[in-house]
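Re: the request from the purification team.
They wanted to know what the chain is likely to look like in 3D before they choose a buffer screen. I agreed to run a prediction and write the result into the notebook, where they can find it.
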Amino acid sequence: MVEKDDGSHFIVGPVREEAVGKTVEVRMVGPNEAELVDSDLRKDVYAERTESTDSDLSEGDIVSGRILKQSAEGVPLLEKEGIRIEVPGAELNEEVKIKVKEISGSNSQWATATGIPVNQDIATDDGHEGSVIGDVELYDELPTSSSGPVACPVSGCEYTGEPASVAGHVSGKRDSQHDWSQLGYAGANAYKRTISTTGHELQSQTSLLHLSDSHLGASLTKTGEYSSDSRCLTGFRRAIDIAIGREVDAVLNTGDLFHNDRHGIPSTVRDEARDQLTRLAERDIPFYSIDGDHERDAGREVLKEFERDGLVTQLNETTQLVGQGLALYGRDFTPATGWESTSWSPTSPSTDRFGIAAIHQSIKPISNSDWPECTVDDVVAIVGPHVHAIAAGHLHRTGIDWNEGLPFVLGGTTEPQRARQASIKPVVGLFTQDGNSLRHQRVQLTL
């Protein structure tokens, strides 16, 4: 149990003797629960590490996790299965996906290794707007030759079955050979089943800009410092530039538009955010949004103010129609303790459309967090058949993670400080519905 300065208490679980009486840094995981940032002080983690140094990790394996500490030399460390993996260029508290490059040695408690980030969004600058860095088809017709049973595309794997079954087999594996990023989207799409709204042809075309985790109000100087300046608006402003330049039908924000940590939202940040949203409103481009975990009370109040002024529409389980081909839903950030107890069931649209549900959560196994608020199965169980894609915020990663036949489209971040991390680039996403096809494109922001 930890006592705060105001005399209140919250639970962190069993700790080592060295932690008793010590001032510690914690991360809140619930209303009255927290986790120690320094996991070495946790009794259960320490016991697990000292019991055995055996590891199933090998060179070339791809693993994910959060950077929670640094080595004595200041190199960021990812701790995984009894191995401390050095990840040069990463930042503390960054979620990374890395390839184990070399396992170099061990001591009484830890084996050590080095890792390199994978799935980095690589692109050259292409003018003020940004550059296309990925064009991923979410739904496409299966080739005629793949209409029957197919084989897993991984060399040496003998798994065969219907295309949807093979897709589930590949996405459910957690080894480097079966990783979607290693297969490449072109190859992977041959094994993903067609998902359509109905048998009717949708002749319309609708476009939706997806942005996430702008963290307006966060300092760009030091971690933990908060600034009244508006430098963090650069990425958000570029995203609005793209929305206007491409004349999209709407903009979707999947949480953490603001970054409030008990210091409120500075007036300069609020006013400039208003200016950017007004630019959209003047062009009849609606801005749909959900609350992230960093909005907190002050951020939510600003968003409510914007909503009253007609600049923002907060999403919920009620259908919001976009253009002629999309339907949007949204669920605000929900702590793990409230995920099952909070009722949320998106309603079916009145016309044939592709449904996209916006969430802002740590999702197991996509986030690889030790304390996820929910699981993929939790999400799939509540969205219903009229939701065809999940637009996800919070993870500051990009890409598409297929689970149970449903694509989880990760929104990345527009915020420059996070975007400078080793495995993250500042991006927005572009959903395009064209007839019975829905596609997603990532665009790197030029800051």
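For the purification team: The mean pLDDT is 75.
Please add any questions underneath this entry.
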